[in-house]
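Input record (Table S2, row 250):
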Amino acid sequence: MKILVAVKRVIDYNVQIRVKEDNSGVVTDNVKMSTNPPDDNAIEEAVKIKEAGKAKEVVAVSVGEEKAQETVRKALAVGADRGILVKVDRVIEPLAVSKILKKIVEKEKPDLVFMGKQAIDDDCNQTGQIVATLTNYPQATFASELKKNEDGTLNVTREVDGGLETIKVKIPCVVTTDLRLNEPRYASLPNIMKAKQKKIETIESKDLNLDISPRLEVLEVNDPPERKAGIKVPDVSNLVEKLKNEAKVI
Ligand code: AMP
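Output record (adenosine monophosphate complex):
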């Protein structure tokens, strides 16, 4: 079994995001970048399946600028066997990423496509679903537990409004991962060194002959409105009075 894992390079989740002065986007220069957190869970799960002897190869793919190679390299350092970088010269939208990933799926023919449930930079939560649609693969989104059945199908437990739902999907399929799925490991120094020897294939997006032009235009990006300072009230009756007459919430 071969597992393809999509990993996206995003601004590190610990970074305090700053809006550019001209409101055209957020500042990314000299900002720490990392793998999108749920994509770490996706890689971890793929590597665990391989370590359990149930998969032969884990391939990590990223679509992005040259620097996205670091994200692929990190996936290699935690256990992926091989990497693919599809180079694009600007940020592209989920539809465009999905068209590219479809091409990679056609080339690699994986049994499982693992992706994060959502990228923390644009919060789109679209790419897994679009890839499943374009490839005509079944999809299991927000996976918090996976179990492979004897008949080759996969049981996927997913978080839904009312609790947990377990569905059975045929493979090949697309699974998008939730942060609860596992605890991603850290790359050890020897494995980081070993990862330098692993192969990363670079593909130029223009060679794929796809229309990856943007469908959306960002008009402006603004900071969220600042929260007003709170006040202290002397007692409960005062609080209730303020909630009723000032905040008008009760
Ligand atoms: P999104 O639909 O943007 O919220 O992203 C959902 C998931 O799609 C991410 O967690 C990644 O696994 C994958 N993905 C999105 N963009 C990229 C990209 N540029 N390169 C690789 N994977 C991506």
